[in-house]
Structure formats: C-alpha cells, structure tokens
C-alpha cells in the first residue's frame, strides 16, 4: 500500500465510509473500521481525565469524591459494556444478512433494555448516594462534599448506558465514524463546561465538584440526543422509524441473555484486578502505588487495541451474517497482526524507557522502582496479548460470549490470582511475583483463545 493510498484511507475512515464490509479487500475494511473505533475508545477515557484535572484544584476531598464515585460507576460501565457486546453482535449479524429492518428492531429493543436498567440504577443512586459513598469507606468530610456529585452521576447514569449502547449499534452497523464524532462532541462540551460550573466564572454558578458531574452529564446527554437524531434520520445503515417502535419481549430476552453473559465476562476480567491489589497490599503502600501508576500507563497503551478488537468483532458479525465465515476468520487474523505490530512496538518501548516514563508520574524512589518493574514485566506479555485481545473480541462479534467468559474466569481467577499469591507470598518473590503473574495470564489467555478460535465453533453461533 502506497503512502498516498494509506492517507486517503485514513481520511475516509475519519470522515466515515460507505463501504460494504462484507465485500472488497479485508485489510482495508479492517483499517476503515479500526481507525475511528480506536479514536472513540481514547475519547471515552478523556471524561475521567478531564474531571480529575479540574477537580484536583478543589483539594483532596474533591478528588476522593471523584475516585470513589468512579468506583461505583464501574458497575454501570460493566453493564453498559456487556450490553454493547450483545448489541454489536446482533446488529452486525443483521447488517451482514442484509436485514436493515431487523437491525433497526434490534436497536429499539436494546435501547429499551438499556433505559430500563439505567432507570433502576438511577433511582437507587440518586436516593442513596451518601450511604453508597459511606459503604465505599468515604469519610464524613468526603460525604459532605461529594453526595450531590455522586447523586448526579448515578442518577443520570442513563446517558452513560445509552452513549455506550447506541455507539455499539453504530459500530455493529459499520458506522464507526459516527460513534467517534459523538464522543468528540460530548467530550468537547464537558471540557468547556466543566471549569465554568466548577469555578463559576462570569454568569456561571460556582458549584464545586457537583459542577463536574453536571457538566459531564450534560456533555453525554447532548451526545445521546445527537445519537438518537442520527438513528432516526433516513439514509444511515440503521434507521429507526415509527414502525419499529414496539417492544418485542422475545427479542429483548435474547438480547438480555447474550448481554448478560457478556456483562459477566467484563465483570470477571475487571474484578480480577481487585484480587491482585489485595495480594499487593501485603507489601506496603509503595508497591501498591507503583503498581497503580504502571497499570494506568498499560491501560492507556491498550486503548487502541480495544478499538482494533471492536473492528474485528464487527467484521466477524457481518461476515457470518453474509454467510462468509472464511472472510470473517481472515479479518480476525489481519486485525491480530495489526495489533501484534502495534502492541509489540509499544511493549518494546516500555521495556527500554520504563524509567523515564515512570519519572513523569512520581519522584519517590521506592514507588518508582516498583512501577518500573511492573511496567517492564507486564509489557513483555504485550506481543501475545495482542492476539488474545483480538481473538476474544472476535468470539463476542460472533455472539459466542460464553467462550471468552470461561477464558477470563480460568486465566484470571483460577490461574493469575493464585499464581500471584503463591509466587509473591509463599515463594517470597515479592511484588515482582504479582507482576509476573499478569504477564503469564496474558500469555495463557492468548494461547487458550488461539486453540478455541482455530476449532471454529464460533462460526456456528446463531444470533
């Protein structure tokens, strides 16, 4: 591929492509989907970063409020991500079949399910925000500062769920650039509005930390309105019309079952970090702080890979819908090679430059030592994990959400956490044992995913 062709494809990816992803060159299709999905994933992380950046000016109590509330919101993210996996698989399959009517009906059922779940969480969160913060260990001062912040974030969680959910509809349909632009808009509004509502310049009220929650909710809410307007405007890959606005209990139940497994999958992977933190806590604050710094760097580096995984999932869903399983499989291996090249390069860079990178976050020599060790050891697993991430998402794209759930449960809970404890505590290796267990689990995930993917049972999944 020439440089001019590459730049042309990148411009088309950002603008939005009308390509039929079940036809034409597979590598180009993966690129057109992956670029906006990568940018979308990065944009989602900006919300939390922007809030902490502004709120940090208000003191440690305000920062603690954001941190504790984000921990509570993790439950919402987990549900939203689980629903998104099911929705992407369903919509992609319908689009691949050429059934745009079925895709629109599936989109309506997904939105209805999301609103119902978010409403239940919102009522509990708005009414019991102080008690929930207390359960998380918040001090009386933090509860006094942050109760309204938590109430707004939890009470308005419907915009989080719908933002994830409707963007999953766009991704499944192949409209990845639309999902990307929605998050650009939502983030832009939040970045501009947050300091106005937090600090109260000019005509704006000074709302403190609560202003950050209101700004974030408004930004996401406007993003959702744009999503809904786009979904109901004729001419898109998925267009919702009045005839689609009826509930179909059977379709909703199928979606709930598919997404329920996906939610469990996300929960198992996310909760495994809690087990690792518990083991690391036995080695003191410096080890825990170093681990926290290193893992945040690692997660940020993995964001583009999640975007590539989403692209592979869409290609698999549409390929299976079009009765082209071989095309779906080739797309997965192409995405995996792209990810291998990307993560392998990032991993090598982290191994060589771990010291200077960590120095940007801490000057404490004890903390820095643990952070450098963690970053280097975990990065050694990047090349293999590059394949594991793509393969797991590909199972999801096929609607086979149970396989990655079992992989996560086995590799993280039954392998990683016990190994971390045995090596670090029982064998006396210390924190390095925990870091090594993470790399081993990455490698195990990739190996198991590879074997199960090659068996090809995912091709037979009915969605």
Overview of the molecule:
This protein is mostly helical and 463 residues long. It has 2 domains: 29-247, no CATH class; 283-460, no CATH class. Helix content is 82%, strand content 0%. Helix 2 packs antiparallel against helix 9 (209-232), helix 3 runs parallel beside helix 6 and helix 3 packs parallel to helix 11. The longest helix has 37 residues, at 60-96. The mean pLDDT is 88.
Helix content: over 70%
**How many individual β-strands?**
0
Largest sheet: none
Structural class: mainly alpha
Secondary-structure element series: HHHHHHHHHHHHHHHH
- The domain tally reads 2
Query: Ends: how far apart?
Result: 36 Å
As a whole number of angstroms, the C-alpha radius of gyration is 22 Å
Runs in which pLDDT lies below 50 for 5 or more consecutive residues are: none
Number of helices: 16
Strand content: under 5%
Shape: globular
Look at the structure and give the mean pLDDT. 88
């Amino acid at each position: 591929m020439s440089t001019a062709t590459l730049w042309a494809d990148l411009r088309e990816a950002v603008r939005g492509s009308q390509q039929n992803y079940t036809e034409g060159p597979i590598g180009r299709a993966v690129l057109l989907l992956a670029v906006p999905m990568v940018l979308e994933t990065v944009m989602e992380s900006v919300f939390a970063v922007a809030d902490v950046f502004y709120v940090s000016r208000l003191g440690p109590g305000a920062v603690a409020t954001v941190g504790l509330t984000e921990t509570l919101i993790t439950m919402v993210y987990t549900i939203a991500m689980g629903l998104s996996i099911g929705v992407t698989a369903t919509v992609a399959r319908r689009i691949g079949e050429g059934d745009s009517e079925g895709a629109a009906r599936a989109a309506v059922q997904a939105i209805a399910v999301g609103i119902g779940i978010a409403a239940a969480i919102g009522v509990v969160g708005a009414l019991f925000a102080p008690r929930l913060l207390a359960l998380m260990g918040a001090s009386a001062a933090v509860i006094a500062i942050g109760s309204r912040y938590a109430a707004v974030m939890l009470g308005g969680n419907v915009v989080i769920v719908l933002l994830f959910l409707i963007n999953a509809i766009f991704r499944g349909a192949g409209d990845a650039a639309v999902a990307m632009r929605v998050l650009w808009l939502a983030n832009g509004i939040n970045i501009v509005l947050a300091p106005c509502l937090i600090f109260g310049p000019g005509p704006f009220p000074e709302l403190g930390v609560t202003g950050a929650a209101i700004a974030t909710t408004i930004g996401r809410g406007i993003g959702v309105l744009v999503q809904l307007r786009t979904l109901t405007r004729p001419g898109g890959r998925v267009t919702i019309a009045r005839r689609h606005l009826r509930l179909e209990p059977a379709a909703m139940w199928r979606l709930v079952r598919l997404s329920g497994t996906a939610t469990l999958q996300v929960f198992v992977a996310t909760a495994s970090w809690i087990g690792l933190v518990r083991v690391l806590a036995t080695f003191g604050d410096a080890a825990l702080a170093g681990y926290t710094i290193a893992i945040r760097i690692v997660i940020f580096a993995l964001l583009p890979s999640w975007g590539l995984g989403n692209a592979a999932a869409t290609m698999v869903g549409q390929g299976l819908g079009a009765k082209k399983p071989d095309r779906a499989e080739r797309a997965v291996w192409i995405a995996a090679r792209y990810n291998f090249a990307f993560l392998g390069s990032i991993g090598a860079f982290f191994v060589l430059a771990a010291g200077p990178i960590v120095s940007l976050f801490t000057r404490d020599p004890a903390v820095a030592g643990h952070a450098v060790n963690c970053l280097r050891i975990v990065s050694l697993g990047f090349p293999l994990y590059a394949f594991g991430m793509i393969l797991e998402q590909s199972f999801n794209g096929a609607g086979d959400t149970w396989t990655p759930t079992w992989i996560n449960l086995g590799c993280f809970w039954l392998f990683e956490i016990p190994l971390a404890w045995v090596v670090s505590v029982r064998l006396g290796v210390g924190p390095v044992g925990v870091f090594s267990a993470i790399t081993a689990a990455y490698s195990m995930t990739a190996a198991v995913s590879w074997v199960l993917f090659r068996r090809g049972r995912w091709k037979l999944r009915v969605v």
